[in-house]
Amino acid sequence: MSFPRLRPRRLRKNLYLRDLVAETRLSPRDFIYPIFVKEGIDKPEEISAMPGQMRWPVGEELVKHVQEALDLGVRSVLLFGVPKHKDDLGSSAYDDQGVVQRAVRLLKKELGDEVVVFTDVCLCHYTSHGHCGVLAKRCRGDLCEYVVDNDKTLELLAKVALSHAKAGADVVAPSSMMDGMVLAIREALDKEGFTDVAIMSYAAKYASAFYGPFREAASNAPQHGDRRTYQMDPRNGEEALKEVMLDVKEGADILMVKPALSYLDVIRRVREAFPHYPLAAYNVSGEYSMVKAAAEKGLVDEKKITLEILHSIKRAGANIIITYHALEASRWLKEGLDLKMF
Questions:
Q1: How far is CA 229 from the centre of its chain?
Q2: Which of 205, 292, 303, 314 is catalytic?
Q3: Which of 45, 137, 202, 332 is surrounded by the fewest CB atoms within 10 Å?
C-alpha cells in the first residue's frame, strides 16, 4: 500500500498521538550519573571545563547530592576519585582508605540499596605519569621509551576492583583497556567471595578527543605520550566487536561503548551482535561541555538538544546512558519536555 492510502503524517497530527506511537522512551532510570569525589577538600569545587559539575568532598554534601539524584529517579552513580597522593604505581587507587573507597562506604551506609554504586577501576587518576597502568622501560639499541606493561597492570587493576568491592560497590567498571582486565578482575573477585559484584566493562573505549574536559576534572592528563597504544583507534568499527567479544568471554556483565555521539554506529553494531547483554554508552565530558558552551552563546536550546542527543543514544541501542546531564535531563523529563518537543 502506498500514497494516497498510506499517509505517515496521520500519526503525527498532535503531540499525544505522536507520543503514543513513539518508538524510543527515555527515563531517569536509564541514567548513570558520574560523580567526582576529591580528597583533601571540605566543600564542593567547580569544574571550569564542565559547567554545572563539581568535585565533591566525602561527606554530608555528597550524600545530599546523591539523594537529589535519587529523588529525581536516577538510581545509579559512577564514582571517579581525585586523590591527594600520586605515585608511579597509583597506589592510592587500591588503598582501602582511598577517596573512592570512603565514598562508597559512606553512600552505602547512608543510602543503602536505594543507590546502585558503580566505581571506575583505572590507575590514570592516581599515577604520577597519568597513564592507565604500570610503565616499563623498553629499549631498542640506543632508543628507549616508556610503555604501559599490560600484564603487570592487570595485577593492580584486580587490587583496585577488590578494594572497591570490599567497600560495598555494586558494580566495578574497568576502563583502562588492558587486554585481559575483565578476566583478572573476575577471578580476583570470585576468589575473595565477591561473586555477586558485577563488572561493567569499558569494552569499546576509543582514543577520543572528546575526553578533554574530563582530564581537567580528574587531573589525569598523561605527562608524556598518549593513550593510543591501549585505547581504540577511532577509525575502527570491526575491532570494537572483537574487543566486546573478548570481554563477554572473560565474564563482563554489562558492556559499554565510549564515547557515544560519534560512535552511534558502534553502539548499534554491538547491540545487534550481543543482544542479550545490557549495553551502556558514555555521553562523555566533551559532548556535555560542547552543549553547555553552545547553549551559553545562545546557539542551541540546551534542554531540547540534550534530550535529542540522549534519545539518539538510546535509539541506537543503549539500555544505559552514562551522562553528566542526568539530573537536568531527569528534571526536564519530569516536566514533560520530551512530550512537548517531539
A1: 20
A2: 205
A3: 137
